[in-house]
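Reviewer comment 2.1 asked that we show a complete input and output for one of the modelled complexes. We chose the S-adenosylmethionine case, as it is the one discussed in the main text.
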Amino acid sequence: MTAGFAVIPNCATVIPAGVTPFFLSRVVCTRGHAAQESAFFFSRPPLRYNLSMSTPAPERIEQFRQKLKKDWTGDETVSAWRKWHAEIASFTRGVTEALLEETELRPGLAVLDLASGVGDPALSIAPAVAPAGRVIATDLGPDMISLAAELARNQGLTNIEFQEANAESLPFPDSFFDRVTCRFGAMFFPDLQKALRECLRVLKPGSRLCFAVWGKREQPFFSSTHGVLARFVEIPKPDPDAPDVSRFAERGRLQRELETAGFQNVKEDFLIVPARWNGSLDLYFQQFSEVSVMARPLLAQLSPARRGDVRDDIIAGLQKFVQDGHLVLPLEIVLASAVRP
Ligand SMILES: C[S@@+](CC[C@H](N)C(=O)[O-])C[C@H]1O[C@@H](n2cnc3c(N)ncnc32)[C@H](O)[C@@H]1O
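Response of the prediction step:
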């Protein structure tokens, strides 16, 4: 059991640890699935992202930007998301629902969604603010959001626009939006303070930002895939200053960053959200091997036989998360909201 999280298994309900009754103030882990994590992958000290919150030198930030651009806008990434977007959206639906609730949406609001990728959560926000409200979905590169635009057309959404935009320099006027949202994107912003100050600038006074980001790296979503892969290939040692999925794993980290940027009423909740995969375990592995920016090049280094071994070990490890014939992984996330003074 891990103190500080709460979850109701087999249920889309998420419970914020900070406001739970005392009997739910720790993980309720009914299936006893403490992850069997790879000694190699997790024996390193937990990644600490620049705890002093000082900003890395500009040339290093520029290197991070170049790498992120390459990773997230390259053909392989875009075509993998094109192939798997529906499955990913369904699997992570609980995170979108938690984010939407925290964002306090209502018809008529103007919403900016950052790092929208192929449209999550922007495509779900549009109906919640319709008919008078609008959403602008943005991303680093044009390809992910052009797929998001295609999905919006298919869904008949007419109050959503799509625009290429780097969160660090937003092409919008001051005090323009009622809400800024971002799901699984803020961990990657190279100059985080710059991006947060941009969010503050484009929000109207008294209006609200809401981010969902990953919690700790040592959780089944990562240990059951990347953790197993690390037994087969050497995973490069992460740069402690570089953007990383577990950047906000430390309690209070995202809250401090938001306060430093000038936000008020900052709230940070650690949640566990059950994620149900509707296909087979084999399909889950295929999706992981194509979508994961980190795993894809490492898997490509292996011979077909070794890749088969990785696949078999990952699938064997996932069996313990199967409930009623479906894979259900407890996603450990951080949900933060804040208000522009
Ligand atoms: C894990 S995906 C999340 C996409 C989507 N929000 C979701 O939850 O499915 C991360 C996204 O962040 C985008 N991204 C990374 N750095 C960014 C930046 N500085 N500005 C805008 N988008 C960025 C990437 O292009 C990518 O689409």
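Residues 37-339 form a domain with the Rossmann fold fold (CATH 3.40.50.150). We note this here for comparison with the apo prediction described in Section 3.2.
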